Amino acid sequence: MFKERLMTALILAPLALAAVFLLPLLPFSILMGLLVLVGGWEWSNLALQRRTHRWLYVASLALLLFATHSMLAFLEVPILVAALVFWWFALSRVGRYPQTKGIEQTLTKIIIGYLVLIPAWVAMVGMKSHPQGNLLIFMLFLLVWGADIGAYFAGKRFGRNKLIPKVSPGKTREGVLGGLSVCVLVAIGFAISAKLSAGATLALLLLALVTGMVSVLGDLFESMFKRERGIKDSGRILPGHGGILDRIDSLTAAAPIFLLGQYWIQIF
């Protein structure tokens, strides 16, 4: 399993970076939209049973993305703020599980899918539109990947205390601390390369830690719904990783918060 995960990651990471650095804004937006739609198809399996209803869900998601794109200049910040509120709500759900099990019915799960996926697309396109957009997305990727890789190896080596075993039995507090340590190193590396002041470096460190923690929340949030649905992976498209949603769950949570934080602290 680890070898499959590693090989898939070694293929996906260069492709993701190539998309960031080589694609202009419109093709990048379309590519992100396609990934969101695949994620929407996988999310629909958590809420809907009939295949026809799942296709209708994906179609509705596509329409919402198109409508959002046409008014992105006006909707970007409100959507990012809504994402912040939503992920605070998600934290309360994850932290209280399994007491919250079964609370989210079909309609609620459908709406949650929109709130997970659309702000993530808005954030990725918003970053790409930024004058330092490629740098921002590159940093976001390093933070999310670093939090994941650091948590994996720290958890394997030092993991003793389970984080939220009812949601994700494999995650440990030590693993999360290891992942956040990598986020700190990433932020320090960017601060040094950009020759940031002490105040800006401190702000970037805070943003990196928050982004790392929210990325963990995104992973746990999807795991909660998969556990309730009785499935291990959201799909089978990626060997060793499962579905697209399994690969981008951390990113869906981290991207809106990271961009909103960047707008607040104005480092880049």
Notes on the structure:
The structure is a single chain. Helices cover 80% and strands 0% of the residues. The protein has one domain (2-265). The model has no long low-confidence stretch (mean pLDDT 90). It is built from 9 helices and no strands. The protein is mainly α and 268 residues long. The longest helix is centred in the last third of the chain and has 32 residues, at 198-229.
Quick recap of the structure?
This protein has 268 residues and is mainly α. It has nine helices and no strands.
Give the tally of structural domains. Answer: 1
Mean pLDDT: 90
Write the element-wise H/E pattern from the N-terminal end onward: HHHHHHHHH
Strand content: under 5%
Spans with pLDDT under 50 lasting ≥5 residues? Answer: none
Give the termini separation: 39 Å
Number of DSSP strand runs: 0
Tell me the overall shape.
globular
Number of helices: 9
Any key phrases for this structure?
268 residues
SSE arrangement:
Layout (H helix, E strand, L loop, with lengths): L1 H21 L2 H23 L3 H20 L1 H25 L9 H24 L3 H26 L14 H22 L3 H32 L14 H22 L3
Helix pairs in contact: 2-3, 2-5, 3-4, 3-5, 4-5, 4-8, 4-9, 5-6, 5-9, 6-7, 6-8, 6-9, 7-8, 8-9
